[in-house]
Amino acid sequence: MKYEIFFKPKSIKDLKELPKKESEKILSKIEELGNNLNGDVKKLTNHTPEYRARIGNYRVLFEIEKDQIVIYRIKHRKDVYN
Fold it and tell me: Where residue 32 sits, what CATH number does that domain have?
């Protein structure tokens, strides 16, 4: 199933704060998520948003709403769950 990808304003801000090389890598992986939810994706327990994707040392927090993936945060693994 193909998903549309939407970025919340905070996720766009998170991306802009990252080094260009890292942000390009993350955007590439997010695009892959839109085509196929395989990979290092985990459903979180007792947490909103409901899912996380692991991309190197960064985590992408997102939810799936019908045929859309909504990206909420993109942060380093030590900061993402605070």
Answer: 3.30.2310.20
